[in-house]
Request: fold
Amino acid sequence: MEQPEVVMIGLGYIGLPTAALIASKNVKVHGVDINPKVVETINRGEIHIVEPSLDIAVASAVKNGYLKAATTPVEANTYIIVVPTPFKGKNEPDISFVEAATKAVIPLLKDGDLYIIESTSPIGTTEKMMALIYSSRPELTNKIHIAYCPERVLPGNVMYELVHNDRVIGGVNEASTQKATAFYNKYVKGELHATNAKTAEMCKLVENSSRDVQIAFANELSLICDKAGINVWELINLANKHPRVNILQPGCGVGGHCIAVDPYFIVSDYPMESKIIGTAREVNNYKSFWCAEKIQTEKLKFELRHGRKPKVALMGLAFKPNIDDLRESPAKYIAQKVLQNDSNGAYFIVEPNIKEHNVFKLTDYKTAASEADIIAFLVAHDEFKTLVIPEDKVILDFCGIKRS
Reply:
């Protein structure tokens, strides 16, 4: 493939769909991933993640010669960084992957190039990377364009939302903002909102922190209602009849690599100021622990009542319905916690969106529901909503499968 227009570093849940979208416009994209198996899979025109329509987009882009994957970058005009930003220590953001990706492209940069970070990042990361670039290549100072543009897509609908959602674009200076805006304008139909890099970084963190706080309120209500003997689903439905009330639905915690993670980027840097944000994280983490304890309690009740250990079905491992993504999943945590407390028990672990797991032995959801004595719904997958469950089963509904 001739020199690409775009280098995409990171071919995961956001990087690969974004690369496929750009390539669909007949723009040559060179995708980079450190995992050789991921590279091989993509170069066959196949995908390594579950996302509707992505398989068609990647197959077409590879076949037509507009998308190629490799383990190292090459020279281009635009470089987009979409790598993980995990934690180190106690919820301290780790930008080492962003830094490593930046160092990999520094030798390739030239006058007029565009460098964009999409990875969720602590406030000030874009400016840190600018300093890193200019310290290594001082001749490029103020001669390349540097910006931050976070994604804001929903897993399961990524290919649509990449195009139609509004985007926030923040450059390190006005020229960078304009250059990045012109780039995204080729692919995004949603409105493009210009700002500076720090504000764009904070905007991403605030969006997901806001969601986390709202979910924490719903989860806290579920704890109170359980103790008070009130159906939380009915309560929320009634409260939402108020014209200015819109309470979210509770679950077994909060997962994914956004809502469950991004608030810590704020709390880590501003611990004294982020009281509500920090407490919301505690509530949502506690809800997962509470669910695991609830399952343990029901197991003990069953054993005392029947004189034998129950067979337990744990329904769902993904962090949200109808996807295969297990990152930061509260359901996965609950399954691990329950099995750790009683590794000799009889369990059916269910996740219809993946074929196998390196820790859990998976069971078909119909078999699990039929053979288990206790059915704990952890994720509201569509398959579970069609199950006809005998009345003699003990049901623990943590995600609203049976809301009435």
